[in-house]
């Protein structure tokens, strides 16, 4: 499963998400929304206004969600 995190610099919830994924050895890709306007438009189309936005397969969510990250680690 491919995991993409849409984030921005100096984001506490983004950093917490990276740390939680790293602790579980879950690989992910980061897209910096300050450098990619197309990605920013994509997450706005999805209805999100807050980062991080995590897209994991068909699932997606916004903010630091330990419950969702735990579920990912159980399904890998």
Automatic annotation (TrEMBL):
It comes from the Bacteria. CDD domains: NrdH. Belongs to the glutaredoxin family. This is Glutaredoxin-like protein NrdH. It comes from Photorhabdus thracensis. One of its GO terms (biological process) is cell redox homeostasis. PROSITE patterns: GLUTAREDOXIN_2. Keywords: Disulfide bond, Electron transport, Redox-active center, Transport. Signal peptide: none annotated. Electron transport system for the ribonucleotide reductase system NrdEF. InterPro entries: GlrX_NrdH (IPR011909), Glutaredoxin (IPR002109), Grx-like_ET (IPR051548), Thioredoxin-like_sf (IPR036249). Residues 3-61 form the Glutaredoxin domain. GO terms for molecular function: electron transfer activity. The lineage of its organism: Bacteria, Pseudomonadati, Pseudomonadota, Gammaproteobacteria, Enterobacterales.
């Amino acid at each position: 499963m491919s995991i993409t995190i849409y984030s921005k610099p100096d984001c506490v919830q983004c950093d917490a998400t990276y740390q939680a994924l790293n602790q579980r050895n879950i690989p992910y890709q980061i897209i910096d929304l300050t450098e990619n306007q197309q990605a920013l438009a994509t997450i706005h189309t999805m209805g999100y206004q807050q980062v991080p936005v995590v897209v994991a397969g068909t699932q997606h969510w916004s903010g630091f969600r330990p419950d969702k990250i735990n579920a990912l680690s159980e399904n890998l």
